[in-house]
């Protein structure tokens, strides 16, 4: 049974943009889609507070109106709606376990400052076992020059078997959309504290540190090139901080893919590269957990 693309809806403009992105992704990959709005009664002692049934009905109406809009725009979409009576984080994490990806919306600071992560999005990002795609609300770009978005830009730091989920997601997305994959790896000069004669010997044999890093990336990409021969791959190796190198390579990115170290339940953190890309990328960002 195909795994669905799951989108979380909370009524904000960003979540509607995320649902629309998820619908297009589900159609492109010929997958079903599940639209989820988690709702639980949380009474607040204010004069404007509506009763439980009124709030429940408003949430149900919002969810079904959003679903109707998606079905109108994408008549071939295999869409299911769910309104679990649970806190949003718990409900989204549960549904992400059996999802191809979980898609969430996030507010933006603006065109230059990227994403503003809410508490729900952040908690899901650091705990989800599968890929989570963060989509910013659509902005009026009528006054901006048109920019080509024909690349998947993937930050490939972990080149061993533990990093395979990042490779797999990036290549699958590029193949599904007929996009080029820009495989990005950053390197820096070793400090006196992590200097290793053995490592430097390997680098010297490869023609220097940069040449050694290029060889490592090229070798790691080889089996994925064989698995996805239709995907054009650009190997991008540069010196500098990983986040800066990744963001500087993203001018034509339709999607940025980064890894998050740590399994669900232990060692939960995003890391500086994921944090930086989520706050400054100008395109949707997929965060993929890896070992």
UniProtKB/TrEMBL annotation:
Pfam families assigned: Usp (PF00582)
Instruction: List, for all copies, the residue spans of the domain called UspA.
Output: 1-136, 164-288
Among Gene3D superfamilies, the record links this protein to:
HUPs
| Family the UniProt entry places it in | Belongs to the universal stress protein A family.
The entry's protein name is: Universal stress protein
